[in-house]
Design goal:
- This protein is an alpha/beta fold.
- It is built from ten helices and five strands, in the order H-E-H-E-H-H-H-H-E-E-H-H-H-E-H.
- It has a five-stranded parallel sheet with strand order 2-3-1-4-5, with helices on both faces.
- The longest helix has 25 residues, at 84-108.
């Protein structure tokens, strides 16, 4: 048996609370040639007209359909992010389908390392599906500044999103490899390089 066939793929989750820089880290890794999947993108594919979640969402949230009969994500977010019961109902529809697709993609990857962006990794208890976790930590004032500038969110909207996420202090107590992202992209690249040398 060749060494190639013995190579095991190490599955790494990239997680953080909103505004900490998950997508920036994913872009840097992709530019380096690594395979990076994103559970938000998987979710978006599932909610398209031909996606597995579409008929279930139409049934559960008929008022979120646009004129072209697509799911209007902003309407869906307005319903669910302000109502814990509705959020739980949405997650009960989407999460099993996202998990199934995520596991299929990871299983099909034959690279030495495969990364998956999972914003709510600990909230949904999916850390058990990974060999390692990269947790991105960013100071709260920097997070708020970034989200106001890049996504034009209000402080109230940011707080509402954070209220649905496990506090970063709790996540830091888990068995993570922590990437601090308080500086610029050059400093972030150095952090990522240091992390990659561990594999």
């Amino acid at each position: 048996m060749s060494n190639m066939s013995k190579t095991k793929t190490t599955k790494i989750a990239i997680t953080a609370n909103i505004g900490c820089g998950k997508s920036t880290i994913s872009r840097i890794l992709r530019n380096k040639g690594y395979t990076v999947y994103d559970t938000d993108k998987i979710s978006n594919e599932l909610t398209k007209k031909d996606g597995d979640a579409y008929p279930l969402l139409v049934q559960a949230y008929p008022n979120t359909l646009s004129e072209t009969l697509e799911i209007d994500h902003s309407k869906l977010a307005n319903i669910c992010f302000n109502n814990r019961l509705e959020l739980s109902r949405l997650e009960s529809i989407l999460h099993p389908l996202i998990l199934k697709e995520m596991l299929k993609l990871m299983e099909g990857c034959k690279d030495k390392l495969v990364f998956v962006e999972v914003p709510l990794l600990y909230e949904v208890k999916w850390d058990k599906y990974f060999d390692d976790v990269w947790l991105i930590n960013t100071k709260s004032d920097i997070v708020i500044k970034r989200l106001i500038e890049s996504r034009h969110m209000t402080k109230e909207q940011i707080q509402a999103r954070l209220a649905n996420q496990m506090p970063i202090e709790t996540k830091l107590l888990k068995k993570n490899k922590v990437i601090n992202n308080d500086g610029n992209e050059e400093e972030l690249c150095k952090e990522i390089e240091s992390m990659l040398h561990l594999y």
